[in-house]
Specification:
Blueprint: E1 2-11, H1 15-26, E2 31-35, H2 41-45, H3 48-65, H4 80-90, H5 97-106, E3 109-112, E4 114-119, E5 122-126, E6 132-143, E7 147-149, H6 165-170, E8 177-181, H7 185-196, E9 200-205, H8 215-227, E10 231-234, E11 238-243, E12 249-253, E13 258-261, E14 263-266, E15 270-272, E16 310-312, H9 323-341, H10 358-361, E17 364-367, E18 372-377, H11 380-385, E19 390-396, H12 401-406, E20 413-419, E21 424-432, H13 439-447, H14 452-455, H15 468-476
Helix pairs in contact: 1-9, 3-4, 3-7
Length: 489
């Protein structure tokens, strides 16, 4: 057994952990990352990057088919083998040499193995060969262990060896028939990807797809999936799974019907990677999501948590299970650690330098289906529930000149939610081809609390999809004009 001392220990070498370490090392604190798998984590190898690579070929082909001239040049379907090869390249062939080299160049130490908290500011690491190293931190330990796929308690499901999102994004063969259990982002994206790659896909969802979004988002995505040959069964649950002698998986649904597939993907949610993290040594419960304040300090009643030393960033705190939001938290936490280590004042007021305020008010998210769904802030329903007095602005994106140039028969919709008391935007949703790049403008408007009257002076270029901003403002009304539209909330 060996022992090493650092000022900051980060457990988890994914994108979030890397960002924490980058901030603390730049702040002059000796930092080590502990990683039991691949440096770069879920996003690099099994989530964000490979999933978007799988989706891109089908989306590009569909876009070409919507443009006369390009459509005539399309001579066949997606080449699945080439698409998988590109995915393999994007995922660095599941090798982390490049990521590990970056840590070294940044001056961040790396210890490989399984980490467990074994006391206040103490982490014990067991390597693959059984070697044990005890790490001690002067200032902070940061838990950035992420989340894993949640499996439902369905009779026989485990025995058929279902895919999780990791399997779906790293598969080397395309199943002829794929059943997807779930209706969220992963389910919708993988249904779209595998349908474009040649699978006959069936989606089984208890509720309408993309239920946390504006209702029209799930409706438009469902329609598009069905037009691309996907069978979408809404309001159904899987009660039993069985693999037949010929390899076929038969799923029995709660209405007595069955679905036959060669492979099953389960995408119903996530669970925190905290089951074997040693949380009990500091008075926390194994397997729980970690509660944090806005500076990402772990909260709890245990005396072991006094002293501002234990942080949790990314999925593991359940605030916003998105890589970009976890990296945002990482920057705030890293800077807070550096400031506290120096004895300086922590700026923990809303929108301060050391807090993750946007987790509450302005989380941007893109679902990379075709059409894309891009949203930030509140939906109309969540705004009303939160007590805001709102105005809903809707616009058909097909009416834009930019949409007409982009695609024949463009289908899409935009919605903006206005807080009438402050006359600022608190939520925006775009659904349509290529709307993802519209999202940051909406995010800036919401985070900056830009007054509606000032937005009139942000002139969108023509002909682009950004012209939607002018159309939404026109729906609200120019300053000085009488507004007779009804409010909501």
């Amino acid at each position: 057994m060996s022992s090493q001392n650092y000022e900051v220990i980060v457990i988890g070498g994914g994108a979030v952990g890397e960002n924490v370490a980058d901030r603390t090392i730049q702040g002059g604190l000796r930092t080590v990352i502990v990683e039991s798998d691949l440096v770069g984590g879920e996003c690099s190898y099994w989530a964000c990057m490979p999933s978007k690579a799988l989706l891109r070929s089908g989306a590009a082909l569909a876009a070409a088919r919507r443009v006369p001239g390009a459509a005539e040049a399309v001579t066949g379907p997606v080449d699945a083998r080439a698409a998988l090869k590109q995915r393999d390249s994007i995922a660095s062939h599941w090798k982390d040499d490049g990521q590990a080299k970056w840590l070294d160049s940044a001056g961040i130490a790396l210890v490989r193995g399984h980490a467990r908290l074994t006391g206040v500011k103490e982490v014990t690491v067991t390597a693959a060969d059984g070697a044990v190293t005890v790490l001690k931190a002067t200032h902070a330990v940061v838990l950035s262990t992420g989340s894993a796929a949640l499996l439902p308690d369905v009779d026989g499901l485990t025995a058929v060896h279902p895919w999780t999102s990791r399997d779906a994004t790293s598969a080397q063969q395309i199943p002829s028939r794929l059943a997807v259990i779930g209706g969220g982002v992963v389910a919708a994206e993988m249904a779209a990807a595998y349908a474009s790659l040649g699978s006959a896909v069936t989606v089984i969802a208890r509720s309408p797809l993309l239920g946390g979004q504006e209702p029209f988002a799930g409706e438009l995505v469902t329609t598009a999936l069905e037009e691309n040959g996907v069978t979408v069964l809404v309001g159904r649950s899987t009660t039993k799974a069985h693999r037949e002698e010929d390899g076929t998986v038969t799923l029995t649904l709660d209405d007595g019907s069955t679905v036959a597939a060669d492979q099953v993907l389960v995408a119903i949610g996530r669970t925190p990677r905290t089951h074997d993290l040693g949380l009990d040594t500091v008075g926390l419960d194994a397997g729980d999501w970690l509660d944090v304040d806005d500076t990402l300090l772990v909260q709890g009643d245990s005396p072991a948590l006094t002293g501002d030393w234990l942080y949790a960033t990314g999925d593991v705190n359940h605030r916003a299970l998105l890589t970009h939001q976890g990296k945002y938290q990482a920057r705030a936490a890293g800077d807070a650690i550096v400031t506290r280590a120096a004895g300086g004042p922590v700026d923990d007021a809303p929108w301060g330098a050391h807090v993750a305020t946007a987790d509450h008010a302005a989380v941007p998210q893109v679902t990379f289906t075709d059409p894309e769904v891009a949203s930030v802030g509140l939906t109309a329903a969540s705004a009303v529930k939160a007590g805001f007095r709102i105005r809903i602005l809707d616009y058909n994106l097909a009416n834009l000149g930019g949409a007409a140039v982009l695609a024949v028969g463009y289908v899409g919709k935009a919605r903006a939610i206005v807080d009438l008391d402050r006359e600022v935007l608190i939520g925006v949703t775009f659904v349509g081809q290529d709307v993802a790049e519209l999202l940051h403008s909406a995010t800036v408007a919401i985070v900056g609390e830009v007054p509606i009257n000032r937005l009139w002076h942000a002139v969108p270029s023509y002909p682009t999809l950004s012209e939607v901003w002018l159309r939404l403002l026109e729906a609200y009304g120019r300053p000085g004009f009488t507004d007779t539209a009804e409010e909501s909330g």
